[in-house]
Amino acid sequence: MEISLLSSTQKYAASALFALALHHSQLHQTRPTTRLLSLEEEPIGEGASNSSTISVSDFPHLWIHDNSGLLLPVFRFMEVEDQAWEGLKETAGVSTQARHHVGSFMTLLSETNDEVSSGIREKELALLKAVDATMLSMESSLVLSEDSDKNCDYETHCRQRCAYPDTTTATDPNGRIPRTAPNISNNEDVDGSGFRFFEKPIEEGKLLSEERKLTVLYELLSSCVADYVTDGGSKGYDARHRVALRLLATWLNVKWTKMEAMEIIVACNLIVRLKNEDAEQFGKIKNDKWKQAGIIGASALTGGSLVALTGAAGAGLAGSRTVIRIEDLDEFEFIQTGLYHNQGRLAVGILISGIAFEEEDFLRPWENYNDNLERYVLKWESKNLIALNAGITEWITSKVASNLLQGGAMLTVLSTLLAEEPLPAALLAASDLIDSAWAIAVDRSDKAGKLLAELLISGLQGHRPVTLIGFSLGARVILKCLQCLAETQGDNAGLVERVILLGAPIPIKDEKWEDARKVFLIAFKL
């Protein structure tokens, strides 16, 4: 969008809303265990207090501070006058009356000017139609593939393989275990992303038309991915920007899938611009230089932010599929999965298995996982994980284990291994089968987490927000990655947007959970 469809006042209001969302999302990130009131629940008027304010200049850790490099490029792109910047930052940093400010700025956005040309209205409607068309395309691609029965068979096989032998499980007429949806209330999942998000739409958002809401979000999104350079280099699409947009979309009652559709539109526009304006120079850039930089090499040649994209010519995570050997790590490679590679996705998902009986167990659990991310499966130390599970299986099927656990399962053994109490005598006697393999697997998971952190810092994913999902030892890989990001010098808080840990073999004590929590935005643990 080379020419803004918003007036100067509307751009000012949109920038202020973004600043408020950026700061408010930080509250959720720094206090993840606290049930914060949504803005719609906060009192306004006589019931609110104006006594608690801050000076942004006194707190350089705030995301709205100049030190973060997150807000001023947005103001610059939105053409907010320089003299208004400080006031907007101070307003965003006010710890009370945020609800009042959000409502006021939404009211400003809703105001119409009789002098607004019909051409602008037509362009807003055109954007609305483009978003709707993109959403239809996205929804059609999320329909279960013809291999859905095959995926169900695999899930049933896995459950039976790890289940209690003496336990009967209900199956459908074809012998498959029926699926159950996760129990997440609608009040906690208002953005349509499948993640718990304790926010609600703001009443004043009803004053805005749908096309005006999308125009505001589209221009703010464009400002977030626009190419800009700071002392630390080009930043790309920061995860904190994406979370702020997620929160603002919730306040405006815009489903997140529409934001994802606009991300695709922005990315495709940048790709077309690259091909049209720089095709000759683009062809001369070599892949090895892209891999060294960890970004799309032609981004410096255009006014757009192709630093936010990856994979257009084999660069990025897919370009590192050869086996990596580092220290004692024998295997570490990314495998593409899903439908959205080289299709303009501005966010990446990395999926990590932690239990494997055979090679296919690294990829198959994720084949039926549907979202709008560009997804990669991390295959790591397959021989060691398979050896570990083979040892556990051998012990479980032994007569001693059967008598001890009365048909116990692998998860019981793993939980016993992780317990702080001494191992039962019978288990201790048989533990030689698995103790060595377990120690090796834990050690390799820690090293894999460190390597993953190093690759994310290098920008191999294209400087796009990353979602990390892992189960069992795969979840441990993620925790170690986050801890390494927290310990490494530099601003690494904008790399990881969301984290899901499933069945993580990680003790509550003696782990740096607080440090890890500082470098990602949204948590989801089961």
UniProtKB/TrEMBL annotation:
Keyword tags: Membrane, Transmembrane, Transmembrane helix
InterPro entries (UniProt xref): AB_hydrolase_fold, DUF726
Pfam family, any one: DUF726
Subcellular location: Membrane
Membrane topology field: Multi-pass membrane protein
Cross-referenced PANTHER family: ALPHA_BETA HYDROLASE-RELATED, TRANSMEMBRANE AND COILED-COIL DOMAIN-CONTAINING PROTEIN 4 TMCO4
Family: Belongs to the TMCO4 family.
Full protein name: Transmembrane and coiled-coil domain-containing protein 4-like
Species this protein is from: Gossypium arboreum (Tree cotton)
